Amino acid sequence: MIKHWINGKPWDSASSRVGDVYDPTTGKVASQVAFASVSEVDAAVSSAAEAFASWRNASLAQRSTVMFKFRELFNARKDELARLVSSEHGKVVSDAAGEIQRALESVEYACGIPSLLKGGFSENASTRVDVYSIQQPVGVVGVISPFNFPAMVPLWFVPTAIACGNTVVLKPSEKDPSASLFIASLFAEAGLPDGVLNVVHGDKVAVDRLLEHPVVKAISFVGSTPIARYVYETGTAAGKRVQALGGAKNHMVVLPDADLDLAADAAVSAGFGSAGERCMAISVVVAVGEVGDSLVERIKSRIADVKVGSGAACEMGPLVTGVHRDKVTSYLDAGVQAGAVLAVDGRDHPIDGESGGFWLGPTLFDHVGTDMTIYTDEIFGPVLSVVRCSSYEEAVEMVNSNRYGNGTAIFTNDGGAARRFQNEIEVGMVGVNVPIPVPVAYYSFGGWKESLFGDAHAYGPHGVHFFTRSKVVTSRWLDPSHGGVNLGFPQNT
């Protein structure tokens, strides 16, 4: 039984509710995870609140020391964590290792917290009056993370929140919960005081309690757009600060002058890596002008060479659950019925040495219309759609008309077109000849439109801003020789 982590140690659940955790490669139940009751969420929040009283006053030196030690431990055991992620999520180990490496960047950013929390200071803003700004922690914060990146997404938030002086209750996905416990145990080994980081597993019961709990001051969430909207509206109605990152439908625009081999490589890598279960996956290729036929043939030839399976040499694993695999597969029939051309059927793709499991190979649709569900819906699986258009202007209008605005890319050798694209496109993260433009840790991650609810993006400078409250102090220390009473209205002089 996979337990909670409360007040610095594993916590036996008093609830009888549990969830199954599968091995996606076999389709069999590998373990079970305890689902938290309201009282167990309350226990985690109480532990975090008690720890906050002292952790908020921990010196920046102490906080950064814990972060550096955690970074050392995390780096030493990242291969172990990658195997753990692979076993529950299904992504191949090499893909999981890439996730771990990007997570490490966020940890390293948080190690610099003494510099990140430096405020401003103005001496003699008025006569013998100094004004300065400080950033203070928010309090107890909740982090609700998705199944697709069980190590990276929690570490987008947890290190920054803790380094800023907050305490955390983390609710990971119940589909692959073990990575969060691994992280919590490493933080404890790094010297993080008990109660600063707590982990509760579960479903809507745990989420709703975090959203409504009066002691929880802020919520960070990553997931689908409908749930992101619910989290944002429910959390803000309860008076909380909320950042809720939602879904995506990311376009890759290929102009006629692009290197088509480079574009085809990028489309396959960005469309089918992690079995398409990532919000920055390319799910739509926009072929501009006459490049469509040639580009589709190049993509098809590369798909044929993608090795699907769980072995060390494989490049793509299964989907996370049977329910999700069946939902993704249903879009293949829907696309054909809508009139799209099923150029590559992932159901026919060979699976390397596996039987059972939640498998679906790379799938390619051509001649997709923007009114089809395979275009409008976030499928969150290895399904790539090619839409054809006649001009750059039509491509930009297509992207800008989409309700999502998470990530996009343009492939071209025309610097002027690329510069115009990054200026005109209404999307939060843009790649130029880069198919998955996930920002490095010292920038911030987040989209526009229905891909983000709230004002703050994840990690980087936005993360520090989200997990702190600014305070401005105006101070006057009078010269000992000064005296007298002045009843007039205070003025700057």
Structure description:
This protein is 38% helix and 23% strand. It is an alpha/beta fold and 493 residues long. The strands form seven sheets. It has a seven-stranded mixed sheet, with helices on both faces. Helix 7 (178-189) links the parallel strand 8 and strand 9 (197-199). The protein is globular.
Q: How do the strands and helices of this protein lay out in sequence?
A:
Blueprint (H helix, E strand, L loop, with lengths): L3 E3 L2 E3 L6 E6 L4 E7 L3 H18 L4 H17 L1 H12 L3 H19 L1 H4 L4 E6 L2 E9 L2 E5 L7 H12 L3 E5 L6 H12 L7 E3 L4 H9 L3 E7 L2 H13 L3 E5 L4 E5 L5 H13 L9 E7 L3 H12 L4 E2 L12 H17 L2 E4 L6 E2 L10 E4 L6 H4 L6 E7 L2 H10 L2 E2 L1 E5 L3 H10 L4 E4 L15 E2 L2 E2 L6 H7 L1 E9 L17
Parallel strand pairs: 7-8, 7-10, 8-9, 10-11, 12-13, 12-20, 13-18, 14-16, 17-18, 20-21
Antiparallel strand pairs: 1-2, 3-4, 5-6, 6-24, 11-23, 15-17, 19-22
List keywords for this structure.
alpha/beta; 493 residues; globular; 23% strand; 24 strands
